[in-house]
Design goal:
mainly alpha, 24 helices, single chain, two-stranded antiparallel ribbon, 532 residues
């Protein structure tokens, strides 16, 4: 099918509008790396700081293995079994989306930290959450929702009629899993593992809060860019992190090419979810509830932590909310909302244009798109920092900072929007093609009457998700904390680093409430009440 010339022109214009700011923001970093000083610094990172590279990869591998296993198990439970509270389990798993990534670290510190609840009640430190153990646990809790969504997307493309037939023929669940499910799902599981490895390698929020003496590339990047003012060293470190993400993407692409990249043959028969019957199935459901509970625990912990002071005994306080109303934190929230709203509009326009002009062709996997989102965040933010420094602007550079951060966040949110919308269109591809063939219509003519109405709920959800990620993103703002314009995500990390957990919990709670209110408003504006 030949693409419409107008669609081709719109697609080309969209990609051009994205490529230009990416090139401008990456230019300072890339130009530095290819210089003589940059090549020397890059060699220094790979040779003299190889333990830091090894520590980063070791942490990323551990998080990738455990996070992929936990996300796959929870996706399988949600997809295959019918039990009371199944929908609630789904939303508990996704609860961290409302909160900044550093909230998992804040929760661990509130419970197990030196001044945490356990230490206050027992008078001693029972578990150390600093270093590798606490950092791995925090990253796993932060990454499980990503793994869960990606694996769940893969499960929904299974030939569900074939699975039901196998069950009706009496095949045991283990054989169905080994013969039907795993051969189809292993490329997605490999992609999810690589996604978590890359995301952990570029995570900067949790290492700043819990890393301690366990240094990783992200903390080294911030130390070089902010603490030392070493632009060359920061660019070299950023290049190594980007290389890890590019390598993960290349392996994803190789796996996809080996499996043929063909669209799965979906069945019109939906999976008949059954109650868990065997002991191990009940155990899986129980473990899923435990993991979901651990994920959702952050929300009540930070809400209680915002009104309970643990630094000098357990006492009620409202100091965090008073500072929010009267201090810089209130300005940080306002600036962050403005930037998140602008970035959401930018990402939704670009993402919708990319998906709508792609026709009925299948897009890349959810994992590939999410990797594209995370890989460029810190390099783009580093470029924004260098541009801000080179402009020579003074303290009255609020508009400059807002535009730079909005641009960075908008660019990294585009792949997320594309992944969300493509997952919906890919699920409709086969039925739409069958309908078009039966009616003697070209698939392109089915876009307006069938596909666009089906995409409206996905557009609503993608808008809410983009705003939440734009408001809570740490990498896109953490390098600009030296500027005079504060942002809520960076302020939370700063408060955690300073040991002011009450203030950090207050900011996290207000952020979650803001995201929930905006999401509710988006849902209502899209006619959610009428559909309900």
């Amino acid at each position: 099918m030949t693409a419409d010339p107008l669609a081709r022109a719109l697609r080309a214009m969209t990609w051009l509008c994205l490529a230009v700011p990416i090139a401008i923001l990456l230019r300072p970093t890339l130009a530095t790396v290819v210089s003589t000083a940059g090549r020397t610094a890059l060699a220094g990172v790979l040779i003299h700081r190889f333990p830091v590279v090894g520590a980063t990869l070791g942490l990323a591998t551990a998080v990738g293995v455990v996070g992929t296993a936990a996300g796959a198990m929870m996706a399988a439970v949600h997809h295959a079994y019918r039990f009371t509270g199944r929908g609630f389990l789904h939303w508990m798993t996704l609860a961290p989306v409302l909160l900044p990534p550093v909230t998992a670290s804040t929760t661990l510190l509130q419970i197990w930290g030196n001044n945490g609840v356990v230490a206050q009640l027992t008078g001693g430190d029972w578990v150390s959450v600093y270093g590798f153990t606490g950092l791995a646990l925090a990253d796993i809790l932060a990454m499980v929702p990503l793994a869960y969504l990606a694996v769940l997307s893969g499960l929904r493309t299974l030939d569900e009629g074939l699975i039901d037939q196998a069950r009706d023929l009496g095949l045991p669940t283990r054989k169905i899993l080994r013969v039907i499910v795993l051969p189809h799902l292993w490329p997605e599981l490999a992609a999810v593992f690589l996604l978590l490895v890359a995301n952990t390698a570029v995570d900067v929020a949790n290492p700043l809060a819990l890393g301690g003496s366990y240094q990783v590339l992200a903390t080294r990047l911030r130390e070089a860019a902010i603490g030392e003012g070493d632009a060359v060293g920061a660019a070299a470190t950023s290049s190594v992190m980007l290389a890890i993400c590019v390598l993960a993407w290349l392996v994803m692409t190789a796996i996809s090419s080996r499996t043929g990249g063909a669209a799965p043959q979906q069945s019109s028969i939906r999976t008949r979810r059954r109650p868990p019957s065997s002991i191990w199935q009940r155990v899986m459901v129980g473990v899923a509830w435990f993991v979901a509970g651990a994920n959702a625990l952050s929300l009540p912990v930070v809400m209680l932590g915002s009104v309970i002071d643990t630094t000098s005994g357990l006492s009620w306080t409202a100091s965090g909310y008073r500072e929010l109303l009267a201090g810089q934190n209130g300005l940080a929230l306002a600036d962050s909302v403005i930037v998140a709203a602008g970035a959401t509009v930018m990402a939704m326009v670009a993402g919708s244009a990319i998906v709508s002009t792609a026709g009925l062709r299948r897009g890349g996997s959810v994992s590939t798109n999410l990797l594209a989102s995370s890989a460029l965040t810190l390099p783009l933010a580093l470029g924004a920092l260098e541009i801000w420094r080179r402009t020579g602007t003074s303290g009255n550079s609020t508009s400059t900072i807002l535009v730079l951060v909005m641009t960075v966040q908008g660019l990294v949110l585009v792949p997320v929007v594309v992944a969300f919308l493509r997952a919906r269109t890919d699920a409709m591809t086969l039925p739409i093609r069958q309908s078009a063939a039966g009616m003697g219509m070209a698939p392109a003519r089915m876009l307006r009457p069938l596909i666009i109405p089906q995409l409206r709920p996905a557009l609503t959800a993608a808008t809410a998700l983009a705003f939440a990620m734009g408001l809570t993103s740490v990498p896109s703002v953490i390098l600009l904390t030296g500027a005079d314009t504060p942002f809520i995500a960076a302020q939370i990390v700063t408060e955690v680093e300073a040991g002011r957990l009450t203030e950090a919990c207050t900011l996290s709670t207000v952020t979650a409430i803001t995201v929930a209110l905006v999401a509710w408003g988006i849902w209502l504006s899209a006619g959610g009440r009428r559909r309900a």
